[in-house]
Amino acid sequence: MPIRKICCIGAGYVGGPTCSVIAFKCPEIQVTVVDISQSRINAWNSDELPIYEPGLIEIVSKVRNKNLFFTTEADSAIESADLIFISVNTPTKTFGVGKGRAPDLKYVESAARKIAEVASAPKIVVEKSTVPVKAAESITKILKHLAPHIPFQVLSNPEFLAEGTAISDLLTPDRVLIGGEESEAGCKAIEELAKVYEHWVPREKLITMNTWSSELSKLAANAFLAQRISSINAVSAVCEVTGANVEEVAHAIGRDSRIGSKFLKASVGFGGSCFQKDVLNLVYISEALNLPEVAEYWHQVILMNDYQRRRFVDKIVERLFQTVTGKRIAIMGFSYKKNTGDTRESSSIYICKHLLDEEAKVVIYDPKVDPEQIKMDLTEPSIMNDKERYDRLVTIASDPYSAVENAHAMVVCTEWDEFVTLDYQKIFEVMQKPAFIFDGRLILNHTKLLEIGFQVEVIGKVPKLT
């Protein structure tokens, strides 16, 4: 029977955009997104969506309350759905077995238990959240034990969305993975989900496989991307010492068709909700399977990312005459990348932490991140855990020019386009002298900055006047 009603449990960065696009492309399918957070659902039903993604509000406004609905009423949505996406958070555990590495699956388990409690007819259950290998097996066991009279099929359909380009990633994906049981019922369930995507995705881009291959493919893909970033960042350290230019090196190796040019941009390190979490998940799985060498290999990707952040801050302190205590440092950008307001695992958080540990006065500007989010991130127990120190040392600026006023240094942490077009002559005039700029994203015109009079420090090369 074709799928006519879809329910998505979880209205976050994956569930919201994914279901908005499905509703947009499949007008005959009713899509309902449920979440326990009333404030989040209220935001989805307003003109101020809870997440920022280019193109998202335009799609939501076209289908909302037509065939796309956002609600906290989970029971009725689950009961009436033919297919249910589980798209809940799977954070890294902060305590217990696997602390700091294993994913916390309590929300996934809770969703599975809710489905078993409510459902009275067969359902296709699809794990959308990033989960460890064999998580689908755990969901299946919960459903079979709690609702043994109902035939469920559990599929794996991992997302491959990059924040900032999520809508285009959904509309024109490189591939869509669907994993399921290697049985007649499993194959039928895979085919039903494939038919949903076929509304706009060419059939040759729909890749079917067994459940465990699908789950591992998601972790491996993010681990490989994170590895490339750590690799070029490791090379950037060598470049700074030898006089090589990391951009030239990246261009040269990226022209090799076996390597390719993507994700070879040196920076202050990767962030976001997926890369670190998924690599650590792979580390934990490898340790659990008694593969210590494999675990250590992937763990080094994380260690290199931490090293790059620390190295960047050390350079700031060194160039500012070995002390930043009491000095005003302008942090330009707090989200982990441009075109998103997401700050999860943002390098800016850790750069600010290290500067605040040195008692620097940090002034932060970001065009999309809410000041309350910045405060929440920087007063986390692992970062500062001292709201009094935060109030004393941290200022949130409403625009880039007020951020740099009287600053000893300007530090570019996020590659927002507006930072490229700022009036740097004006900025130079209002900063303390010598005026330092640390470009952690390699986006500025370094020659022009030197001509103005800035002291310029860049990851992966030594900028010079031509």
Report what the structure shows:
The protein is α/β, with parallel strands linked by helices and 466 residues long. The protein has helices spanning 15-25, 38-44, 56-63, 74-80, 106-118, 135-146, 166-171, 184-197, 211-242, 246-254, 275-288, 292-319, 347-357, 371-378, 387-393, 400-404, 424-430, 446-452; strands spanning 5-9, 30-34, 68-71, 83-86, 123-127, 152-156, 176-180, 206-210, 328-332, 361-365, 394-396, 409-412, 436-439, 455-458. The strands form three sheets. A six-stranded parallel sheet has the order 3-2-1-4-5-6, sandwiched between helices. A six-stranded parallel sheet has the order 11-10-9-12-13-14, sandwiched between helices. Helix 5 packs parallel to helix 6 (135-146). The protein is elongated and about 75 Å long. The mean pLDDT is 94.
